Amino acid sequence: MAERSERDVLHHLIDLCRDGERGFCAAADHVSNPALKALFTDLATQRKRFAEALMPHLQRLGGPPDADGTSAGRLHRQWMLLKGLVPGHHDNRVVAEAERGEHAALDAYEEALNGMLPPTVVEVIEAQRDAIVKATDRLHTFEMGYSIVD
């Protein structure tokens, strides 16, 4: 990772969490399976909590009080929306796209953990990364045709 300040890293992760929140809300709106809709809604709420948990660490460093997500995240949500509009659309397409977004988030979290961050922030980021791994597994389970597990 190029040398980035703690502030830059936290800002980026907060943006990714906001992207995830919006993306999962959009995904919940475009699937028909009730269990999948509930999963996406839960994950949207989780990402909102992740951003809220990181915000005090960013504010301690003089970061802005609010983050608006990334342009890549906006593009990803639009792509998910377009896939949902294609005739013959299946929930699995939305799941596959959500899973792809989760892998990108995991990459960003791993990159953040390879930087120089204080232990208190590292603990928060590690816990969030572990939750994203679990979410990715849940999405993959659904994509493979199994029922969603907690």
Detailed description of the structure:
- This protein has 150 residues and is mainly alpha-helical.
- The longest helix has 27 residues, at 34-60.
- The protein has one domain (6-143): Ferritin.
- The termini are far apart.
- The protein is built from 5 helices and no strands.
Major sheet: none
Which structural class is indicated by helix and strand composition?
mainly alpha
Q: What fraction of the residues are assigned to beta strands by DSSP?
A: under 5%
The CATH architecture assignment turns out to be Up-down Bundle
Principal-axis shape = elongated
Percent of residues in helices: over 70%
**CATH fold-level topology:** Ferritin
**Overall number of structural domains:** 1
Terminal Cα separation, in Å? 33 Å
Query: How confident overall, as mean pLDDT?
Result: 81
CATH superfamily: Ferritin, core subunit, four-helix bundle
Radius of gyration: 16 Å
Number of strands: 0
Q: Show unreliable segments.
A: 73-77
What is the count of helical runs?
5
Give the helices and strands as they follow along the chain: HHHHH
Which CATH C-level class is it? Mainly Alpha
